[in-house]
Amino acid sequence: MKKTLLTLCAVALGAGAFAQTEKGHIVLGGSSNLGFTSGKQDNDADDATTNFGLNVAGGYFIMDNLAVGLLIGLESEKTGDVSAAGFGI
After folding, report:
1. HEC string of 48-74?
2. Which residues pair with 7 in a beta bridge?
3. Maximum Cα–Cα distance for the chain, whole Å?
4. Calpha distance 85→78 (Å, rounded)
5. Helix and strand tally (H, E) in the chain?
6. Which residues contact 42 (CB under 8 A, 6 or more apart)?
7. Quick one: which H or E segment has residue 45?
8. How much is the mean pLDDT over the chain?
9. How many other C-beta atoms can be found within 10 angstroms of the C-beta atom of residue 68?
10. Which residues partner with 40 through β-bridges?
11. What is the dihedral of CA 40, 42, 46, 49, to 10 degrees?
């Protein structure tokens, strides 16, 4: 079982080695996260923390093996009655 899992992981990682990095190609990507934590901070109140993040990225190869791109991110966190949000480029 371990050998099969190791082989599958090696194939999955090796598949990315055939990326198209020639001039004129476009690359797109993204990621997200969602988290939730509940606990007591002041020994008298239950505080729940929720966080969320989303990132989107894109790029254009201006020459072989060299891309210029943009990453846009959004983050949000709420703990009890306090919340915060952020946006980045």
Report:
1. EEEEEEEEEEEEEEEECCEEEEEEEEE
2. none
3. 60
4. 9
5. 1, 4
6. none
7. none
8. 80
9. 9
10. 46
11. -70
